[in-house]
Amino acid sequence: MHNSSLMLAIDAGGTSTRATLLNTAGECLGYGRSGPGNPVSSGLDRVMHSYREAIEQSLEMAGRALDDFRSLTIAMAGGSTHSPISGMAEAFKTINPSSEVVIESDLLATYFSGTYHGDGYALVAGTGAVCARIRNFSLDRVTDGTGWLLGDHGSGYWIGYHCARAVAADLDGIGPATAMTALLTEQLGLQHSAASFEGRPARLQAMIQTIYALRPIELAAFAVIVFQAAAAGDSVAGDLLSKAGQLLSHSLRTTRSAEVTGPLVLGGSILSSRSVIEDELASELAGQAVFRVPDGLAGAALLALRHAGVRVDQEIFTRIGSSLSALRS
Amino acid sequence: MHNSSLMLAIDAGGTSTRATLLNTAGECLGYGRSGPGNPVSSGLDRVMHSYREAIEQSLEMAGRALDDFRSLTIAMAGGSTHSPISGMAEAFKTINPSSEVVIESDLLATYFSGTYHGDGYALVAGTGAVCARIRNFSLDRVTDGTGWLLGDHGSGYWIGYHCARAVAADLDGIGPATAMTALLTEQLGLQHSAASFEGRPARLQAMIQTIYALRPIELAAFAVIVFQAAAAGDSVAGDLLSKAGQLLSHSLRTTRSAEVTGPLVLGGSILSSRSVIEDELASELAGQAVFRVPDGLAGAALLALRHAGVRVDQEIFTRIGSSLSALRS
């Protein structure tokens, strides 16, 4: 048994990784933030570098050494792909050989960033989109989150993909005019030109070459353009966001069970700001405790505490949140 | 000037390449067929191997040698990506140093496989989907054909992609039950199982791993399943084909001009057999001369003749078709 009672919690996401060092009272003592943390999309070497960096920042802020924690709880996407946990456990031994390593679902971590109740729902829409029903502190049902090609209905990727298609259709003359065309072609650095090549507009030809040089998942970045155009009144963009909201609402409705009546936690960049998406979700949010969370770090801390045998109540949950806020500001 | 009057015409597609040796009367004397011929998707080395193979077969059938033709006309996809024509011209010198090389659009070749009229329309739906207006023997307007990520509305990829998403949604419980699920999971070799892993059906988990190991474009192969399920009365599959037909119909309608009233040539595997897609196209086909073609080889031969200064009339056009049919049978 490790002689320290301190724990490290990590929220490992596709674009960034966050870590916090906490004690058994739920007080967060250090915080760190680094790069990509998903081993499936970024590879084990890259993510181990991210983890080490975030861990070292957390320990340094708390004035602690590399072996001053007894357990390492990592929340990561595990629903859609099998994580290389065996190789990872070995790699962690090089950071702290005596620490226990616990892998948790990022969905649970997001949910427990918003509540300490064992039963409820989480709806997360960032690059992907996934919905979960939580029962007795475990994943009872997960819907969607099946990735850009098979699902992620209403996600940032879904919105960005449909943005690119709408702009291509506009340039092609087979779809309606949209303000997204000027925004996207400018972002891609395409020349304004009325020229035509083999019966096709030169600007569409240039867009094709630019888009196919990207990895498909990078289309998620265009979601910002859709929010921007919709806010300025563009109806094609507005319709896309409405449809995204309907798809997310449908996933949530399908995930519900009469036996689980707890709170709903909303996470991910797509749900972080007010938009028409929220209007479409209104009927699902009505008469329901709703909590918005920026990420899954507080929940990863809660899961670390539970693993250490701590019963997390309102007081401890509040302490996690407030101490983390203080460290992050 | 080459002392032979023979020409070689090649129809270079994404999955196969066809070649024919013909004389100035439009009589095809030899025929060859080989592998992938699109340099963008398969690379220059691979396609040069295909071209050489199809050329050698054609010459052997006609009892001719490698330098017994004066020109080489190659029809290939050039609308959506820039072909490496310079490197290709060099590579052809190794086959026949004295032959002239002419690159033509595969769309024109498909169109001229169905008619010798200089004005008209082509609608091609295979893996991709593209529509063209032809005027004075040239591409006047091209719509769609922007690839799997940006367009190809109603194409084989579009149908196969939506098949995979419908099956994932069915397994996930967020979409309606469909007969495509049994057909696709069987084709992918997924085990029947009611087991669940982290709140998600094991069969969906297995499907995710199988699908993401494919190149996206390979989803086009699932189109067959949609035709099969629709023919057996599955409404989800039937709705997908109806929607594909509507999208193709829309592209064709957008491409029309009152000034171009010629025939319509239909090409590609999706339009080669009777299905609900054709019902959706009915209003576009009514009162219009419609020709169906298996590929673009006859049109590549016609373009080779035109390049040699031959005026292709009904007699020559018919001779190309009948001599080619005899060689292929």
UniProtKB/TrEMBL annotation, chains A, B:
Any one Pfam family match given in the protein's UniProt record, by short name: BcrAD_BadFG
Superkingdom of the source species: Bacteria
Domain ATPase BadF/BadG/BcrA/BcrD type: 10-304
InterPro entries: ATPase_BadF, ATPase_NBD, Euk-type_GlcNAc_Kinase
Protein name according to UniProt: ATPase BadF/BadG/BcrA/BcrD type domain-containing protein
